[in-house]
Design brief:
Layout: H1 3-7, E1 12-14, E2 35-38, H2 50-53, E3 56-65, E4 69-74, E5 89-106, E6 113-119, E7 121-122, E8 127-129, E9 140-145, E10 157-159, E11 166-171, E12 174-179, H3 180-199, H4 203-210, H5 219-228
Region (Disordered): 194-229
Length: 229
């Protein structure tokens, strides 16, 4: 479960504009609907830190926007459950985005397509716009995903600028522009470092290893022990 749910759930705040029409969302009817902004907040992560958080990191191209749905997420102990909210649900507006994989940077399964669950979409009565805006077909992206296909807001979905083939990342709490190949090289290096850390023994195991091996009793000590028992 991503920490966002623990912090705020998905709170929808009305936009001051009367309404907008987004033709790329897939609806043929030119109906102007009220627009709301998804105001979910996440802990801040440097881009390289997300390598340790994500189950899958992939570079690819958006192929299709799916049907937007309202997903009910049960309130958990992570949200400070009280008698008032116990057993209740938080509603989250989500749209499955199919991404054709160019390269899997992190992940055990090598898939041709992955699904990213974008927060927001178009419902019958309203449009919910995600932080960072909607992904559109043809967008080139680098995504950091959980096992369930969710991310950490716009910091986990990096769009590739096709003009100069670059992405904007978070580094030392500042935005920094990198070429896509440079970013992928850094992420792969970080992933290798994380894998090596996983292979190292824990502190407790290291302490046990460093202890002197047990000393075998001498013949005299062994004889004495037998006599005592």
């Amino acid at each position: 479960m991503i920490k966002k749910i623990a912090l705020t759930g998905t709170v929808i705040v009305a936009c001051v504009t009367a309404g907008l029409y987004y033709p790329f969302l897939g609806h043929s009817e030119k109906i102007v609907k009220p627009v709301y902004h998804d105001s979910a907040s996440y802990p801040y992560f440097e881009t390289e830190q997300l390598m340790g958080e994500a189950e899958v990191v992939a570079h690819g191209v958006v192929k299709q926007r799916g049907k937007t749905e309202i997903v009910k997420i049960p309130v958990t102990t992570e949200i400070d459950v009280t008698k008032e909210n116990e057993g209740k649900f938080v509603e989250n507006v989500e749209t499955p985005i199919t991404i054709e994989v160019t390269e899997i940077i992190k992940g055990k399964e090598k898939k041709k397509n992955i699904i990213y669950m974008e927060e927001g979409g178009e419902l019958e009565d309203r449009i919910v716009e995600p932080d960072g805006g909607f992904l559109q077909e043809g967008d080139e992206v680098v995504v950091f995903l959980t096992e369930g296909g969710h991310s950490w807001g716009k910091q986990g979905v990096l769009r590739v600028n096709k003009t100069d083939n670059s992405v904007v990342v978070q580094e030392n709490k500042q935005e920094k522009k990198l070429k896509i190949d440079e970013l992928k090289t850094k992420l792969k290096k970080k992933n290798q470092e994380l894998q090596l850390e996983d292979q190292l023994p824990s502190t407790e195991e290291a302490v046990l290893t460093e202890k002197d091996p047990p000393v075998e009793p001498t013949n005299e000590e062994a004889t004495t022990t037998k006599e005592v028992h």
